[in-house]
Design goal:
This protein is α/β, with parallel strands linked by helices and about 575 residues long. The protein is about 65% helix and about 10% strand. It contains 21 helices and ten strands. The longest helix has about 50 residues. It starts with a helix and ends with a helix. The structure holds adenosine-5'-triphosphate and magnesium ion.
Length: about 575
């Protein structure tokens, strides 16, 4: 518990201390207000009551006469003050809880975006989405419960203090009371922690399946393959339900367990004070009342405490993810050198591995500024991986990537990336209008340029229909998604434009139009083309042929065609002569 309090303290800082002070003050005022009942009763036999003596001493201190009227006024004042404090406390607690949720979510998203791409890639998407949407709410709920726990505990402590002042013997009863509670608590806590972890694990898996189904729903529906996957997900949903049921039951049943203990202790107290101590009946009643208040508050700590630990699984996964994102945060080298785009880009003896799978094996490439180069080769040969390295998304495991003979590690990555245009192999479409998709919500839009690009990429019809793109482009055709991704990069001012299969889904009329656009951009910026259709890359200055993570040939189109190698083979299959 302390471990997580520390984590929350890191987030909330002094605010939580202020809240604790407010809570404690509220509890003290309640305790003191109730203690005023003793002088109000004004029973002569109570004279040697220690609590009464303390109150007398306090009234003497402020020089106030203990008339009934004065006592009642003080009593009212105390409870009015308590009400004000409680209202303020509720407001402050609500503010803390809501700002905590905002902060946690923002923090997680920011650290996700700022962490290393290789690490992001290794994360499980279902888990990520589950943590961001569900677990984070439970972590915040846990904080709320933790605060409720502290309120009850501090109120209980105040009553215990009063009970102690009246009669230290009561302390012994309380210790006896505490032992069985502690034993039950430890047992229940274990069950709760375990079910909480099961619940989180199950939720992650469940979220994964749900994402998978949503993403592949077209295929699953059209081919009737939903049944086999739905069996798998049903098992997971049931498991989550079972863990949830267990958690809920332990949570709610535990409160009732303590009631018999309270009654037993109360009965013993009555017996002890009436038969053995022969105390005054008013004193006994008052003591019982105080004891009951203490016991109720101790029992009241249980529900929030259990709810708190029932979120242990969520806290574990949230804080673990956050820590690992922090430790994989990428250094964008903001104090690094400005990139010089009028210089040569070089990959020297670069190798790259995904887990144990070698994707690039000792490749070297030199790209002169403002030239057009192309990567071709079979599927899985390492073209996209090379593009990812050139865009600085991935760092070579071995070898060096340099610009202007400076290692990329010395360059300000943020400035470098601002000038990278990247039409990735996966189309990038946002839930927004065509215009917003291209301008990325920019405030200053160059309409002349925008209109020209919309026209050239064949998006005019979509634009005129004012089409709102939804669900990552589910209401677009494959070619339309690709044109939109391309239009965005043409609109941005880039120095290096990477196009990974940018025209694979567009028709040949549009393809030749896009080739024209590319040839317009030629000599204005460095262009890197990746394509399976060789016609697209015919005009490239240098073509690199990839095979199995290696570069097996390079040269211009005409040179390669004559080489009688892999490229000649590819060209023959596509009917080039
Ligand atoms: N995120 C990843 N995690 C693990 N392995 C990957 C990942 N991305 C690619 N690979 C592997 O790395 C190798 C090179 O992949 P890459 O995407 O660079 O190929 P490619 O030449 O672009 O292929 P394609 O023409 O099919 O797009 C492949 O064996 C692939 O399985
Ligand atoms: Mg690829």
């Amino acid at each position: 518990m302390i471990k997580y309090i520390k984590k929350y303290y890191n987030f909330l800082g002094k605010k939580i201390i202020v809240l604790l002070i407010i809570m404690q003050t509220g509890a003290l005022i309640e305790g003191f207000g109730i203690s005023l009942i003793l002088p109000i009763i004004q029973n002569e036999e109570l004279e040697d009551n220690r609590l009464l003596q303390t109150i007398n001493w306090l009234f003497d201190l402020i020089n106030l006469d203990q008339s009934l009227l004065n006592l009642l006024i003080v009593l009212i004042l105390f409870f009015v003050l308590r009400a004000i404090i409680l209202i303020f406390q509720s407001w402050f607690q609500a503010a803390i809880i809501s700002s905590n949720l905002i902060y946690m979510r923002k923090n997680l998203i920011d650290s996700l975006i700022l962490s290393d791409y290789k690490f992001i890639n290794s994360l499980n998407r279902g888990t990520l989405s589950n943590v961001l949407n569900n677990e984070i709410e439970r972590v915040n709920f846990a904080l709320d419960q933790l605060l409720a726990f502290i309120v009850s505990l501090s109120t209980a402590l105040v009553y215990l203090l009063i009970a102690f002042v009246i009669s230290p013997v009561v302390t012994i009863f309380l210790v006896i009371f505490a032992i069985p509670i502690a034993i039950i608590m430890i047992k229940l806590n274990k069950i709760t922690t375990k079910s909480s972890q099961d619940l989180t694990k199950g939720s992650n898996k469940q979220q994964n399946f749900i994402l998978e189904i949503i993403e592949n729903i077209k295929y699953l529906k059209s081919t009737g393959q939903y049944l086999s996957i739905s069996k798998k997900i049903n098992i997971e949903i049931k498991k989550v339900g079972k863990a949830f049921r267990k958690l809920k039951f332990v949570q709610s049943s535990s409160t009732f367990l303590f009631e018999p203990f309270i009654v037993i202790i109360m009965a013993s107290l009555i017996y002890y004070f009436t038969e053995i101590r022969k105390s005054n009946i008013i004193e006994i009643l008052f003591l019982l009342f105080i004891f009951r208040q203490a016991a109720i508050n101790i029992v009241a700590t249980q529900a929030p405490y259990r709810k708190f630990i029932s979120s242990v699984g969520s806290m574990e996964i949230y804080f673990k993810l956050l820590d690992s994102l922090y430790s994989h945060s990428e250094n964008e080298n903001l104090n690094g050198d400005e990139p010089n785009f009028d210089s040569v880009l070089k990959l020297r003896n670069v190798s790259y591995k995904y887990d144990n799978n070698i994707a690039l094996d000792n490749i070297s490439i030199e790209i002169k500024p403002k030239t057009t180069i192309a990567f071709v080769g079979p599927s899985g040969s390492g073209k996209s991986t090379t593009a990812n390295i050139l865009s600085s998304l991935l760092k070579p495991d071995k070898g060096e990537f340099s610009l202007d003979d400076k290692s990329i590690n010395e360059i300000n990555l943020s400035k470098y990336r601002e000038k990278i245009g990247y039409v990735t192999q996966e189309t990038v479409v946002f839930n927004a209008s065509v215009e917003e998709n291209i301008s990325l919500w920019s405030k200053k839009i160059n309409y002349k340029k925008l209109d020209k690009i919309i026209d050239e990429t064949g998006l005019s019809k979509l634009f005129k229909n004012n089409k709102n793109i939804n669900d990552a482009g589910n209401n677009l055709s494959g070619g339309e998604r690709q044109r939109l991704s391309l239009a965005r990069e043409l609109y941005r001012d880039s120095e290096i434009l990477i196009m990974d299969e940018a025209t694979s889904s567009v028709d040949s009329i549009l393809e030749s139009q896009i080739e024209k656009i590319i040839s317009n951009e030629k000599n204005m910026k460095t262009i890197i083309l990746i394509a399976h259709r060789l016609s697209t890359i015919k005009s490239a200055d240098v073509i690199y042929v990839f095979d199995n993570g290696k570069i097996v040939e390079y040269g211009n189109f005409d040179e390669l065609i004559k080489n009688n190698g892999l490229f000649t083979n590819l060209a023959k299959k596509q009917n080039f002569n």
